[in-house]
Write a structure and sequence with these properties.
- By secondary structure, the protein is an alpha/beta fold.
- The chain has 2 domains: 7-253, Type I PLP-dependent aspartate aminotransferase-like (Major domain) (Aspartate Aminotransferase, domain 2, 3-Layer(aba) Sandwich); 256-392, Aspartate Aminotransferase, domain 1 (Alpha-Beta Complex), CATH 3.90.1150.
- It is 40% helix and 15% strand.
- The protein contains 15 helices and 12 strands.
- The chain has a 7-stranded mixed β-sheet with strand order 1-7-6-5-4-2-3, with helices on both faces.
- The termini are far apart.
- The relative contact order is 0.12.
- The mean pLDDT is 96.
- Bound molecules: pyridoxal-5'-phosphate.
- Pyridoxal-5'-phosphate is lined by residues 84-86, 110, 153, 157, 182, 184, 204, 206-207, 216, 218.
Length: 393
Amino acid sequence: MSDAPRFETAAIRTQAPITAEREHSVPLFLTSSFRFDDAEHARALFTEEVSGNIYSRYSNPNTDEFVHKLCLLEGGDDGIATATGMAAVFTALAARLASGDHVVASRALFGSTHQILTRILPKWGVTFDYVDGPDTDAWQAAVRPNTKMLFVETPSNPGLELIDLAWLGAFARERAIDLVVDNCFATPYLQRPLDFGATAVVHSATKFIDGQGRVLGGAIVGSKAFVADCRFFARHTGPAMSAFNAWVLSKSLETLAVRMDRHCQNALAVAQHFEGHASLESVLYPFLPSHPQYALARAQMSQGGGVVVFVVKGGLAAGQRVLNAVTLCSHSPNLGDTRTIVTHPASTTHSKLTAAERAAVGISDGLIRVSVGLEHVSDIIADLSKALNAALS
Ligand SMILES: *Cc1c(COP(=O)(O)O)cnc(C)c1O
């Protein structure tokens, strides 16, 4: 057995160097810049002959600690922290792609990632094609000589579509194309895409990594070469995570394993309880045997995650009745919080798409995303029962 600390231990015992105060818990370094010992030290820091902090847009002890810990948890060689999940997604794409390059992405992507691919990168001559993520033939057909990156989200938000990471990782490696995985829904506790051959993982740390709905944050973790490009891009364009958010998120990682265990346990119980409910056309959850990719979920995830999808009979109107009837659960756009949160994408986050466009990415009008929290599962189930019965009336 290796001497490397196990997941929970690495998450708790990875710590920035202790200061002269001999603190037990990591202090917060709210400083925009750092002092040089002398002119020679300043020169050597800037030429990177010695390592050390210069300015918090480049690095800070709190962001370094958070990133170092996340690298251990994801199994990545290097990483950077960013202000939001979208800053991580944009940095990964913009740092690695140039005019004339092509991206192949799974269609079921987070809305803002879709906007970057369709409305922002084309301004700089970067083109893309979408494929149905689970369709391996479609990946083969879509790759061109100028394809430089494959981008996927698994499980996807909100449709809970899975991508076969072992297959796609090998496919990308054979062709020397970057594979970037948005690992936001699973977190490294449930799934480690780098182990399957991904080049880099991007995170919205705002979700399960913080897990308490407090701060925004993001990260990129992956190979040294990939992260070196991202670090150069971020250092000069400025999407840095604040020291305060890094301090919060490093603390959050200490409890990620116990929180995810309970999120997954509660989510599975909710999914099992409501499968077959009279108000529902279907319940989707990766660890329900009825999920179309159940076998894949069992193969690449250790548990099913904290998000359950309900498809309510009666479309938009019935979906809205459910949202108006919850009292314990929060009606809010976030996810991955201690609090159970219900969201109706068709009338909110994805309302600008046509019903046909929504259907193509698995978002029907009756789809409700339930981010199952850490309240007592009986209370969560009681509140959702009341709301789903309201949809029947
Ligand atoms: C929320 C989310 C993002 C964006 O993260 P922010 O921190 O809100 O910028 C990206 N990907 C997925 C899958 C998300 O759920």
